[in-house]
Specification:
Transferase(Phosphotransferase), domain 1, alpha+beta, seven-stranded mixed sheet, TATA-Binding Protein, five-stranded antiparallel sheet, 3 domains, 19% strand, Phosphorylase Kinase, domain 1, single chain
Length: 519
């Protein structure tokens, strides 16, 4: 039986090929410790998406660790099948150190489930990127120094240049689709939405589909008009560069409804950068490059070739050993934060089970306030609660731009955070004794999850930090949620009277005022 789904040079494996492993698969079906897909031992789940799960796998022939993208064929419709084909075709065209490698494709393979049943799946075998998502490093440890951001932007441009040379336009460039390998080198991944240039003449093909993640889409893609792939990818790469440097996006969406985008469209770049300079620091060279990237008209936008000649891009990058040392230090913090999140989920699940069973004993001995109402922590008097000190701000943490300082008490801040969450119809669990709140807010078609922590500042007695960290959902949606909540808490923000204020007639003041009118 021959596969008809794929025409990529990477040879697919049909069920007749997969039948070469019947003994291994039969053994796998009878054991709880491991299962087999073709010659790959299937281990734990690494992640999941719309089309299927990604599993850690081991090639039993070469002993190489790989990522197995497992797609249930019974759940494939015409659209999803086209996306699978597009991903395989795109990745098979490109071979570059900054593009995730496609190792093989296995079509119509029997997959033994833990319950003894067998389903037919497509298996896309990919290079394993053990460093994780670039987004995790920014989410958990803050934005990057300019030399690190430049190094990763250089790698991103190199990978995109290799893709475009083979007629592959990614169309969904964002930090979540940029992975890191064991040496922390960048790998462009997830080509399921890519556009492919057909034909041997190498002519630029117009694309029509509005696809990708809206916050990273170029204005021409959002306009639903025909567009070219390279300028669209350049725009998305510019948004990634901005986020690497600032820790937040340059605008919410590239349409006329967004004031920040309108400033770019009207070429009011001075106002755009003056406003953003209130929350982040950009060098003149970085602003110069991103200004040319954020040209609304694609024909005026800087190209990849021109980016490579820009003075900021050509500056000496951080030494590879220094880059690895910095990212290794950050990865330890990322792993620790994720470990804490897993523990919190286990505690919450155990607590919920106990509540469902009407048991009064709490094995974790934690005070968890699940009511939407604001109340004092159980077992403590009002006076005791009001005098309780928040934990000290970790010395290893990197300050986030989704945080603010306040001179109010930790208890007052906790109360106001819960009140703001209630006002915005958020679902939340408040751990009052630790000044930590896990929350979920509705954001269009999907929810965004985040944690709110309150810390005391040992080096600034009488002040606290209120920190918001995303746990699930899109980055841009998280920033929208933070913007809403921080607006409700704006009266709590510490005001340093020694800092000079921006003049009323400055471009930044004009921008903020106009933006406030839009909200």
């Amino acid at each position: 039986m021959t596969s008809v789904l794929f025409s990529a040079p990477v040879a697919p494996v049909s069920n007749m090929d997969a039948a070469q492993y019947p003994q291994q698969q039969q053994q796998a079906a009878n054991t709880n410790s491991s299962r087999m897909l073709a010659q790959y031992q299937v281990l734990q789940t690494l992640g999941s998406g719309l089309q299927g799960k990604v599993k850690l796998g081991v090639d039993t022939v070469t002993h190489q660790r790989v990522a197995l993208k497992v797609i249930d064929m019974a759940k494939l419709n015409r659209k999803s099948m086209i996306n699978v084909y597009r991903e395989v075709e795109a990745m098979s065209r490109v071979s570059h150190t900054n593009v995730l490698r496609l190792l093989s494709v296995h079509d119509d393979v029997p997959y033994p489930k833990k319950d003894g049943n067998v389903k037919q799946v497509i298996v896309i075998v990919l290079e394993l990127a053990t460093g994780g998502e670039l987004f995790d490093f920014m989410m958990y440890t803050g934005c990057f120094a300019e030399n690190i951001a430049r190094a990763y932007f250089q790698q991103l441009v190199a990978g995109l240049e290799a893709c475009h040379a083979q007629g592959v336009y990614h169309r969904d460039i964002k930090p979540e689709n940029l992975l890191l390998d064991e040496t922390f080198a960048l790998k462009i991944a997830d080509f399921g939405l890519s556009g492919l240039r057909e034909g041997a003449d190498g002519a630029m093909a117009e694309l029509y589909t509005q696809c990708g993640t809206r916050g990273y889409m170029s204005p021409e893609v959002l306009s639903c008009l025909p567009y070219e792939g390279e300028p669209a990818d350049v725009w998305s790469a510019g948004v990634v560069l901005f986020i690497m440097l600032a820790g937040f996006p340059p605008f919410q969406i590239a349409t006329s409804q967004d004031w920040w985008f309108r400033a770019c469209a009207a070429k009011q770049h001075e106002a755009f950068w003056a406003a953003h300079a209130r929350s982040a620091t950009f060098s003149p060279g970085a602003m110069s490059l991103m200004t040319r990237i954020f040209h609304v008209k694609p024909q005026e936008r800087i190209t990849l070739a021109e980016i490579k000649t820009h003075p900021w891009f050509k500056e000496n990058a951080i030494a590879p050993d220094d880059l690895r040392a910095e990212l290794l230090s950050r990865k330890l913090q990322v792993d620790e934060e994720k470990r804490k999140e897993r523990e919190e989920k286990l505690r919450a699940a155990a607590k919920q089970r106990l509540q469902q069973q009407d048991e009064e004993f709490d094995p974790f001995n934690m005070d968890v306030e699940r009511s939407m109402a604001v109340s004092a922590a159980a077992g403590l008097s009002t006076a005791e609660v009001s005098s309780k000190k928040a934990p000290s701000y970790p010395s290893t943490s990197v300050a986030l731009y989704t945080s603010f300082q306040s001179s109010r008490t930790a208890t007052e801040l906790q109360t106001r955070v819960e009140k703001a969450l209630t006002e915005h119809s958020a679902r939340f669990v408040a751990h009052k004794d630790r000044f930590k709140t896990k929350a979920t807010m509705a954001a269009d078609a999907e929810d965004v999850g985040f944690a709110v922590r309150i810390y005391s500042l040992d080096n600034a007695p009488g002040r606290c930090v209120v920190e918001f960290r995303r746990t699930s959902g899109e980055c841009l949606k998280f920033h929208e949620a933070y913007k809403k909540l921080s607006s409700s808490l704006s009266d709590l923000v510490w005001d340093n009277n020694d800092e000079s204020e921006t003049a009323d007639d400055s471009p930044a003041e004009e921008l903020i005022s106009d933006e406030a009118m839009m909200i």
